[in-house]
Write a structure and sequence with these properties.
Number of domains: 1
CATH superfamily: Ribosomal protein S16
Number of strands: 5
Strand content: 35-45%
CATH topology: S16 Ribosomal Protein, Chain: A
Order of helices and strands: EEEEHEH
CATH class: Alpha Beta
Shape: flat
Largest sheet: 5 strands, mixed
Helix content: 25-40%
């Protein structure tokens, strides 16, 4: 069972809101997940990104692989914390 860290879509039509979730790679996009590790709202200006670093790091240590989109969001989150 491969575990992935990926986005799960919520919100209304044309107003997306995403949760960053840890999920089995065979599960559907909005299906069952193991844990929520953050949120991402691209509709606000600037984009709202909240990631629980401890939860994320524990899953990365266990071998969970982030998708390319989540990798870029993690990099943005790290850049935000360094800038502050």
């Amino acid at each position: 069972m491969a575990v992935r860290i990926r986005l799960s879509r919520f919100g209304r039509k044309k107003q997306p809101f995403y949760r960053i979730v840890v999920q089995n790679s065979e599960a559907r996009r909005d299906g069952k997940f193991l844990e929520i590790v953050g949120t991402y709202n691209p509709m606000t200006e600037p984009n709202e990104l909240n990631i629980h670093q401890e939860k994320l790091q524990s899953w990365l240590d266990k071998g969970a692989e982030p998708t390319t989109t989540v990798k870029s969001l993690i990099a943005k989150s790290i850049a935000q914390t360094v800038a502050e």
